């Protein structure tokens, strides 16, 4: 508070750096905004890929985007029922 | 040689696109290039009043596209500057009367007729924007040093890049005093955040209002900081890309320069 008062007295602004910081964050948020449609298609693709290697419970696969101040993470969680055997894998994938 | 079509855009409204279009266009024409400025804000035309040509409007860009007149018939010659032409917007239509395909077709004709064509883009990123950028070879993104304008500029830059149009940044209405006391983003701040090349910065200048009031050219006024800045931007577009960017913060006050002489300040 003292800091704020001092700044007011001496006319030293600080809003420039605040603006810059807020802008940076806003732009990051804007760029990682993902539509529901895109998430749905992505979920389908991820299920396809994982299913080549594992038997999974497709219904309970969960897809989320978690955001914090400095990064966004795509989090996929799925229960694995069984790993596929290597021989089977090579015959599946040409 | 074919002319260049440059779209002047911003996303956000009211940041000075029309003034920039008028002034840069005038400056290019003053350096002996054949220039057309086109008002792409169909239904809300303004470039004609800014240039003081509102009483001479007969045909408009929609007439050209629809084949109701020739390009040369719609191009209004400026009163003061030779080789400077305005193609106005239609005031009675809406943006949907044009399509990006229409504009690409007209663009070919425009490149043959002029050295520079500046498209004054409407605010927003909808149909009017799509029409204005359709034929563009390059883009100038205008923004003021405030968060909403910079954010919108970022969005527009993304859209331009996705269409392989290389945008350059114009930071408008910088107030050096406010930047100096830490209450306004500097042009360097804006460049850093948007990470594209700067084509110039324009200081806040009362003369802009005066010249718009009277419909006269800012670049012909003496002592207009903004007018001079627009002239330098025109030079950078017209074969002098390396003309140094002037930093208003580096312009020293009397005390600053005295103390610098005395070695008290770097």
Provide structural commentary.
The complex is a heterodimer of chains A (94) and B (266). Chain A is 55% helix and 20% strand. Chain A is α+β, with helices and mostly antiparallel strands and 94 residues long. In chain A, a hairpin with a 4-residue loop joins β2 (62-67) and β3. Chain A has helices at residues 2-10, 15-32, 36-53, 86-92, and strands at 54-56, 62-67, 72-77, 80-83. Chain A has one domain (2-92). The model of chain A has no long low-confidence stretch (mean pLDDT 80). In chain A, strands 1-4 form a two-stranded antiparallel sheet. A two-stranded antiparallel sheet of chain A has the order 2-3. With 266 residues, chain B is of the alpha/beta class. Chain B has one domain: 3-Layer(aba) Sandwich (Rossmann fold). In chain B, α1 packs across α11 (225-237). The longest helix of chain B is centred in the middle third of the chain and has 16 residues, at 147-162. The mean pLDDT of chain B is 94. Classes of the chains: A alpha+beta (94), B alpha/beta (266). At the A-B interface, α2 of A face α7 and α9 of B.
Short synopsis of the structure:
The complex is a heterodimer of chains A (94) and B (266). Chain A has 94 residues and is an alpha+beta fold.
Task: Please give the structural blueprint.
The complex is a heterodimer of chains A (94) and B (266).
Chain A: H1 2-10, H2 15-32, H3 36-53, E1 54-56, E2 62-67, E3 72-77, E4 80-83, H4 86-92
Antiparallel strand pairs in A: 1-4, 2-3
Chain B: E1 4-9, H1 17-30, E2 35-39, H2 47-50, H3 61-65, H4 71-74, E3 76-77, E4 84-87, H5 100-113, E5 116-120, H6 127-134, E6 138-143, H7 147-162, E7 166-174, H8 176-180, H9 187-194, E8 198-203, H10 206-214, H11 225-237, H12 254-261
Parallel strand pairs in B: 1-5, 1-6, 2-4, 2-5, 6-7, 7-8
Antiparallel strand pairs in B: 3-4
